[in-house]
Every structure is written in C-alpha cells, then in structure tokens.
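Study the following:
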Amino acid sequence: MRLWIKDPIAILAEGAERGIVVEDGVIVELVGKGREPMLPVQATFDASRHVVIPGLINTHHHFYQTLTRAHPQAINKELFPWLQALYPIWARNVTPETFRLGTRLALTELLMSGCTTASDHHYVYPAGLEAAMDIQADEAERLGMRMTITRGSMNLSQKDGGLPPDSVVQDQDEILADCERVLSKFHDRSKGSMLQVALSPCSPFSVTRELMRESAALAERFDCRLHTHLGETHDENSYCVEKFSCRPVDYLEDCGWLTDRVWLAHGIHFTDDEVKRLGHACVGVCHCPTSNMVLASGQCRTKELEAAGSPVGLGVDGSASNDNSNLMEGLRHALMINRLTYDAASVTHHDVLRWATEGSARCLGRDDIGAIRVGMMADLAFYTLDELRFSGAGDPLAALILCGAHAADRVMVGGTWQVTDGQPHGVDTARLRHEHGEAAKRFLESL
C-alpha cells in the first residue's frame, strides 16, 4: 500500500513541503511544494497538525537503571562514588524479572518521546541474568522498535583493582562465548533490520586489556560495532594513567579500537590532539548532555569532534543519571549545554536534530535510517504544537527544541504506526507503571 503523509506543518527534509509517500516500510517519494504524488496512493494521512522529523536514535542507555532513579544513596554524587553506591544495589536486585520490566519501561519511554531505534549498553551480569540480551531482543520486538543490543561486559572487579563488585562480573571465556552466541542469534546486517548487535566492554576501569582486544577481533569476524565508555571524567583519565601508563585514547589505540567500527559514550575529556586522532579514525561519540550535567562530568567537545571527522550522536544514558528515557528532552539539553560551551550562533536546533538522527545512525553504522530521503526506512516521529508551550512559536522545527517538546503524538517504525494519539500500541502504561514501581521497591529495601 502506498501511503501519502500529506501536508505537514513542517518536515525535516528538503523538497517535501507537501509530505512523503511510504510503501512497504520505505520512503519512496518526497512530494514538493505545489505537487501531488507521481503515482496513485491507496491511503492518505492528514499531517496538517504535525511537525514531522526522522525517528530519533538513542545511542547510549542503561535500561535496568530505570529501577534506581533518584536513589537516595546515589543522588548528588559524581561518577565514581555514584557507581560505588549503586553497584551493590544492582548486584543484589537485578533479576530476569526486574531486568525485563526495566527494559520494557525504558523502551516505552523512548518510543513515546519519538525514538524509533535504541541502543542499550548492558554490562551487569549477576548470577541468573545470563539471558539478558534475549530479554532485550524480545522486548524490542514486542514494541516494534529497532534496536542495537550491546552485549556489554566486565571482568575486572574490586579484587583485581577494578570498580565493580565481584558478583556482577564474568570471566573472559564466559563473556566471549556469550558474545558469539548473541551475534550468531541476533545480528542482522541487512537493510531495514530490526535487530543488530554490538560488543561493549564497559570501561577501562572494569575490563582487561585482553578482553578489549578479543572483543575487537570478534567484531571483525562478525562485522559488528564496538562500544565503550571513554573520557567521561577526570577520574577515568587518572585511572588510565595510573594503571596503564597512558591516557584513554592511547589505551584505545593499543587495544585495536581506534577504528570506524567504534563509537564511544560521553567522550568529554580529550585533548586537541586526541580529538584529531579520533576524527581521523572516524570514531563516533555519543553525546549524553543530561547525564553529563547531572553527574557534573563535563562538556563534550561536539563541534571539534564533528569537524575532525567523528560522527556525533545523542544518548539519554542510564536512567539513574538522567533520570528518564526521553530523547526529545535530551535534544533541548544538548542545545543548551552546547550553547554554554560555544555560543548561541554556533549551535542551532538543526545541529541537535542532526546529532539525534543522522549522527546517531552513523554511530550505529547504519545508512538506512536517520533521515527523510527516498530509499530510507520510514521511521518517523510526529509532534503537534497544540500545547500552551508552543503558542506563538514562529519556526515549527525550532519550536520542538526551544519550547520543549517531550512527547510524540504519533510514531512510525518501518511504515507501521507504533504510537497513536500519544499512546504506544499494545502497552498498558498504567499497568507497566504499577508493575515497574513495585519491582523498584526492592532496590530501596536496604535503606
């Protein structure tokens, strides 16, 4: 069926003033000003109440952390003490059941904010959670979202000089065996795929150099992406100098990770030379503005990284350091902190929209999503401007960011409506809120 999405208020695409035509989940035509579709359509959707943008793409998250939002033992702390407060709580309470609810809630929140593709970095593996990636694949399929499941890992615990407790890490052989299993089962590199896999050792302070190198070799075998935290805080830089006698980017290169297969979370504390090296290698960086502000981690050098050649994407980061899963809200935060970093003219709403769509798609290694163009998958987010916050807005696209849009009215993934009138299909949000809230109570029982 050919569907004409007709006459939007505004659309983030050149030459599509009268909308777009979707067929078999793909954008097949842009309908310009004063024109009609070139071929007959079988259905029309009146988009005259909507601003239409590509579906947002979240490139860094920790879904399970929705269960410890605003946790009394972790608020008002920076990264290392924040992790030290939460690791024991996660170790005791993350089970397959709570993990499934945390995943479901995070994906639902993302979808309702206009996100059509998500990547989650899961690295906590207490006993019994060996099927974490299977749970996430199942939940993404239920919601009809695209996902890059990142098989995270930690094998350097407190007894080895690392940060995490012994009970949430795994040994290297166990990690690599499951990475290979997950890649063989879920990694789909075809156009329009709903599920892909990345390998994601957690960070320099929680994995060994050998695991980093073995993960890179496995990624080459399976043609998948690599992801890790890097350059998030000054403490991390100091740790690398103390433990490895080099800075994080040098460590990355030594492990065989300075390639265009890699995207990094945060990427804040890089020198000018390191920015150039990362850009030359086309290493992507996921900017996490909300988390960076909550934990006072610092300000990502987005403009320099992008100018050097690094794809820049956006992520909400974990819901215990955000503390929500709303990517559209993250765009506004990205605009504000980057204007504070640079100036008002240097960072516009077009920049943050690009980071959250095309930039994020590049971080995930995808060229079939992230833009409204012929041949791209029909992943779209529709926002109304009916609320009081938008009254008087002159530029509809700028209004989404400056006036604080936070919920999509409709969301389409691969030509299929997954959100209508603000509600995700097939999800009882009141029941989800109750079940998730009950599960989260056990994370407070130690208080």
Remarks:
- The chain has a mean pLDDT of 96.
- The first strand starts at residue 2 and ends at 6.
